[in-house]
Amino acid sequence: MPATTPTGTNYDSMIPFQSHAPGYWPEEAMEKWDDPKWQLKNRINSLSELEKHINLTQEERTGIILSGNKLAMSITPHFMNLVDKDDPKCPIRRQIIPRMEESLDDPQEMDDPCGEDSHMPVPGLVHRYPDRVLFLVTDRCASYCRYCTRSRVVSGVGEQQLDTQMEAAFEYLENTPAVRDVLLSGGDPLLFSDGKLEKILARLRAIPHIQFVRIGSRIPIFLPQRITDDLCNMLKKYHPLFISIHTNHPKELTTEVKAGLEKLSDAGIMTGNQSVLLKGVNDDVETQKALVHKLLMCRSRPYYLYQCDLIKGSSHLRTSVAKGIEIIEGLRGHTSGYAIPQYVIDGPGGGGKIPINPDYIKEITPEKVVLRNYEGKEFTYPEPQYANVEV
Ligand SMILES: *Cc1c(COP(=O)(O)O)cnc(C)c1O
User: Fold this and answer.
1) Which residues pair with 110 in a beta bridge?
2) In a mutational test of the pocket of ligand 1, which residue from 134, 137, 242, 270 has the highest number of ligand atoms less than 8 Å from its CB?
3) For ligand 1, what atom is nearest to the CA of residue 344?
4) Mean pLDDT, residues 148-159 taken together
5) Which of 55, 84, 206, 250 is most enclosed, with most CB atoms within 10 A?
């Protein structure tokens, strides 16, 4: 009998690594383009600036006007160049350009969907899990994701303030030996200068029971110019240090982003990617497959795929849990295990991350487990029958 060889399609060629610079800024000198300060200074923050570059729909125009006192619009030139000029369905556009639907009132939505405010022993420090904390060190980002789970405090235009008490947070960590893992987030900690960030890392590293430090950042995607040699040389003094990045669509992985991620890897920093499942952005197997394959090419490991939190004004971006399960089903077995993120739902109201998996167990008894594989074929694993006999 001939061996059966699985067949499949390779989607990697669909969206190659490429640079989009200078894009909408054809006049700009390349050295300015590579300067993170120039990128930050030239962010798109207003309707009039945005309209100079792209054709907006009425839903977007209204969304931008209404976003003014909720979650600011801000887009780095680097990321702006990924936006399609004419296509309102552009997967990049939906992530960072406000839409009118953000103002829709959905009673199921919340200001604080992950229940963070009620898990803060010190303002700005979320201690939900036994051994690790989320430390919100800033309320600013390089650009703002429209589905931000922390939009209640991020960007500085809403009613609520983050109000992190840095000194009290360090004291709490010093006095809480159960905490062995600190995740710096915000906002985006990589917006800090190297010096300011180093002070925080050095202070954490001086606490003996803190074994592991992570930084959550979308700067490698929004502002890859920030990933400098100096930054990497500073960060690598504080190992073991991981960085959780945030990429949703393969187009976001440009040559500049790849170079930045490689620099981090060369400095010994593991990067894990967190994606949010978003309607019209990445809610199909092909897009997710292209994304995870490109991530591995950048030496970044897909870490979590999040079901979109029930954040206020996100209904137009949320998709069903069934869709998420279908995506994982479409990856597992069909591609490298390293390419597959864990799909999770952050339990609404403060349940923490709950893993969601396709069901591969058909039957489980003390004698056996009946399973199905990725092709739908059935297999039986007999349970050990002498487990209770003493030897
Ligand atoms: C996500 C999160 C963490 C980190 O969780 P991991 O599963 O270890 O990545 C820690 N604290 C809070 C409050 C979080 O939301």
Assistant:
1) 311
2) 134
3) 7
4) 94
5) 250
Neighbours of 20 (CB within 10 A): 17
**How far, rounded to the nearest angstrom, does the alpha carbon of residue 196 sit from its chain's CA centroid?**
23
CATH 3.90.1150.10, applies to 1-358? no
Known active-site residue 148: yes
The predicted-structure confidence for 340-372, as pLDDT tens digits, reads as follows: 999 999 999 999 999 999 999 999 999 999 999
Q: Which atom of ligand 1 is nearest to the CA of 114?
A: 15
Give the domain ranges of the chain. 1-358, 360-391
Tally the C-alpha atoms within 13 A of residue 19's C-alpha that lie toward its C-beta.
11
pLDDT at site 74: 98
Q: How many residues are given for the chain?
A: 391
What's the number of CA atoms in the CB half-sphere (13 Å) around residue 243? 29
**Active site includes 129?**
yes
Strands 241-246 and 212-216: parallel
Q: ω into residue 36 within 30 of 0, thus cis?
A: no
User: Listing from the earlier edge strand, what are the strands of the sheet with 361-364?
Assistant: 361-364, 368-372, 378-382
Ligand 1 centroid to residue 10 C-alpha, Å: 33
pLDDT digits (tens, 9 = 90+) for 1-54: 556 676 655 555 567 899 999 999 999 998 999 999 999 999 999 999 999 999
304/293 Cα distance (integer angstroms): 15
Q: Pocket around ligand 1: residues whose beta carbon is below 6 Å from it?
A: 114, 126, 128-129, 132, 134, 183, 353
Section 248-274 average pLDDT: 98
| Pocket residue to mutate for ligand 1, from 117, 120, 132, most atoms within 8 A of Cβ | 132
Of 176-180, 188-192, 229-233, 382-386, the range with the lowest mean pLDDT is 382-386
Three-state SS at 316 = helix
Amino acid, single-letter form, for residue 384: P
Q: Whose CA is nearest to atom 6 of ligand 1?
A: 353
Q: Residues with Cβ < 8 Å from 9, sequence gap 6 or more?
A: none
